[in-house]
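pasting for ref
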Amino acid sequence: MLIYKETNDNYILGIWKIEESADTLLSLLDKDTSEDFRRIYTSENRLLEKAATKLLLNELIGSSVRILYKPNGKPYLENDSRNISISHTKGYAAVILSGCERSGIDIEYISDRVKRIQSRFISAKEYIDPDNEINHLLLHWSAKETMYKALSREGVVLNEDFIIEKFIPSDSGIIAAKETFSEKQLCFNIQYFISDDYVLTYTV
């Protein structure tokens, strides 16, 4: 079900909590879409993610628009010039729509598994609060995933090409970050909030 929606002049953002069965989600879609999803996605988890994302998008814009994908995997909307970014995690789907060229979103379920892979995305220059380690690591991971989606650039090394400025996590806020692989070294202000179950980051 839709649990969060935010609409303003810059973007539309929504989160869907996936509590329904695949059959229930598919029954809420039009027949052609439902049949296509059943044929294409044999994994139950993948089917749930795709159906929830499509329903979330329908709720956000009030009509049914097809989600298509470029060769690099970046999603876009059929006959709609707005940029779309999509993220999934355990039991949730998130979508942001924006006219901004560099927009991205990421949602991550709160779990200590992130500690096992922190060397892949944290550099020695970056600060992690020892008193709030899991959430801080998750925000770093999520923010860098958001930047990756916003830039749509392949071959990025998360612990080298993206730098997060020092911050202390709170329930919500803005993370200052930049990419270091281009001459421009683009800067990002990444908004975030933390719930009991997940962290969410996005930029437009």
